[in-house]
Automatic annotation (TrEMBL):
InterPro entries: Kynureninase, PyrdxlP-dep_Trfase, PyrdxlP-dep_Trfase_major, PyrdxlP-dep_Trfase_small. GO terms for molecular function: kynureninase activity; pyridoxal phosphate binding. It is an enzyme of class 3 (hydrolase). GO terms for biological process: anthranilate metabolic process; antibiotic biosynthetic process; L-tryptophan catabolic process to kynurenine; NAD+ biosynthetic process. It comes from Amycolatopsis camponoti. The keyword Hydrolase applies. Its EC number is 3.7.1.3. Keywords: Antibiotic biosynthesis, Hydrolase, Pyridine nucleotide biosynthesis, Pyridoxal phosphate. Transmembrane segments: none annotated. One of its GO terms (cellular component) is cytoplasm. It comes from the Bacteria. PANTHER family: KYNURENINASE. This is Kynureninase (EC).
Length: 300
């Protein structure tokens, strides 16, 4: 819902433009939603092929007809970090707006939306923000758009007078107009507590541990798993790798089922990826070593 709201808002702020840009390796929900909004508005989707999107990839596709560019800050498969500020500048130079998906970056790496000039962003709270399954999503709108953006799912919580029960909808000033109905209160409690843990730890310390955990996975993968047919799909440069590492193997789908059955809780990512999640607040180096040892044992 948050991506729908922000993408529709971005498109409405760029009337006369009829193209939306995203990449073919973006998270399925994002791609599906982009196609749905494009069909709804009569727009065309312009595709960037593959993941790990660089500014030059966006430059090759975005143009005078582009209304919005929808990208993930951290690739859900490879963990490659996109140049949020650089891509945003390029998109603005072409007169379009950005919508960033932060699901695999927020709480894992520093995210500087204001400094990077981002227009809109969405994200989840159940991963690195520690709120747990079913926790609500969130959205961001840059303050420069607060006075003019509209969103398509209007509701009483986003009205100027919440309890006025007015005959017609009048949007609230500022970001509150992005609300629709009553938020899930129990889920919000989970977010409150999960974010408090992150704030206490500090994002810089969290990021430092995520980098160290990633290095540990890469080192063990090179030593233990490469002889068994594994390769690394994630960037090896610390500055370009988010909070997980993806390993490739020709029999990854079957091996993933075996690993889960034996207590190694990874994610399979088509076509051949095994994603090792590294949530710094809850994952230790000993656990990573034990998991990698188990992967070596079962793969052998």
């Amino acid at each position: 819902m948050c991506l729908y709201k922000t993408l529709r808002a971005a498109a409405a702020l760029r009337p006369g433009r009829d193209e939306i840009v995203t990449d073919s390796a973006n998270f399925p929900s994002d791609r599906f939603l982009v196609e749905s909004v494009a069909a709804e508005l009569g727009h065309t989707v312009r595709w960037i092929e593959g993941g790990d999107v660089r500014p030059e990839d966006v430059a090759a596709v975005a143009g005078p007809r582009t209304a919005a560019v929808v990208l993930s800050h951290v690739d859900y498969r490879s963990a490659a970090i996109a140049d949020l500020a650089g891509i945003t500048r390029l998109v603005h130079d072409r007169g379009a707006l950005t919508v960033w998906d932060l699901c695999h970056s927020v709480g894992s790496i520093p995210v500087e939306l204001d400094a990077g000039g981002a227009d809109f962003a969405v994200g989840c709270t159940y991963k690195f923000l520690n709120a747990g399954p079913g926790a609500p999503a969130f959205l961001y709108v840059n303050a420069r758009h607060h006075a003019e953006f509209g969103q398509p799912i209007t509701g009483w919580m986003g009205a100027a007078d919440t309890f006025g029960m007015a005959e017609h909808y009048v949007p609230a000033p500022g970001i509150r107009r992005a609300l629709s109905g009553t938020p899930p209160v129990l889920g919000m409690v989970g977010v409150q507590e999960g974010v408090a843990l992150l704030a206490e730890a500090g994002i810089e310390r969290v990021r430092a541990k995520a980098v160290a955990l990633g290095r540990w996975v890469l080192a063990l993968a090179d030593e233990w798993l490469a002889p068994l047919g594994f390769t690394v799909a994630s960037p090896r440069e610390d500055a370009r790798r988010g909070g997980h590492v993806t390993l490739r193997h020709s029999d990854a789908e079957r091996l993933s089922r075996v690993l889960i059955e034996h207590g190694v809780l990874i994610d399979f990512r088509r076509p051949d990826g095994i994603r090792v999640g590294l949530s710094p607040l809850t994952t230790g180096f000993t656990e990573v070593r034990a998991a990698m040892d188990r992967i070596r044992e079962l793969a052998a």
